[in-house]
Fold this protein.
Amino acid sequence: MIRQLSLLSVSRLVINIRIAIISCFLVGLPGLAIAEQPLTKIAFGSCIRQDKPQPIWNAVNAYHPEVFVLTGDNIYGDSEDMKVLRAKYDLLGNDEGFKKMRQQSRLLATWDDHDYGVNDGGIEYPMRKESQVEFNRFFKVPANSPRRSRPGVYDSLSIGPKGKRVQFILLDTRYFRTKLKRWPDPKKRPTPGPYAPNPADDASVLGETQWKWLEDQLKQPAEVRIVVTSIQAVAAENGWETWNNFPKERQRLFDLIRTTKADGVVMVSGDRHLGEMSRISAKETGIAYPIVDFTSSSLNQPSNPKNKHEPNRYRVGENYLLVNFGTIEINWTGKTPAVTLAIRDIDGKVVLKHKAF
């Protein structure tokens, strides 16, 4: 009897080891559904000065998110020299708080302009291929991931059992994006920021290959979909980098969610060095439910006080200008998931809170 129990224990141990190995292999591969306990606590943030203190990781780690998503500006690389980018990534990687977060939470990431390599840059950045190599190295992208073989760092992953699946769709708003258009007379511009909308038919944010990929992802089964876009998709009036720099592309994004009938979409973004929630109505988009764009930024750089009154007709409540991170909590006990969004300060205290659905 003792021998039988011992053999049974060994057998279970072997099975558990195999499951663990398979799970490690699958993490990070696009479009895969990993059957495990449903996610209930997700955190995200953006805009990290790798050469400045990062005390906010203490609050992040105390929150114990199952997944942490970096939405861009993960370093301030701003260089065409890959040795510079690598050194800055390594500086971030050696931060004790960041290391602890990476050990206890599953880390997902996309990039924005500064970690891409140039401020407000897009397709015109000449070192984008090389920069992608450094991104893949730092984030330990699996060797067989499409991120290793195709242009751009867009990716997707589904986590959780059937009926409680969370799909992460990480967009790349840099690699294929058309160069920005500026207002012709900076002194007479109607927006705080310098960028004018580009209505051209051939202007793009994602590029056609990524658009087709996104359509395929939105058709995948999921109960909650977190669409990670480094720049804001809903806010449209500030004149800085948003999807509204390319209004036809912004409309295309909403149209795609509508035509694919994708349920449970919540957008998360960064970039702006402030926290806020923007909501666009179902009436305006034609989607069956309002689309929320939840912005968290920055992890260690407070915003300019003048941004307190930055125009945004879609903003729900106020914005928050000090360092912050975002959290997404999912309650699966009802017939449909209940998703609560919050901005948390440097100590982890909730300063803004909203229901997504």
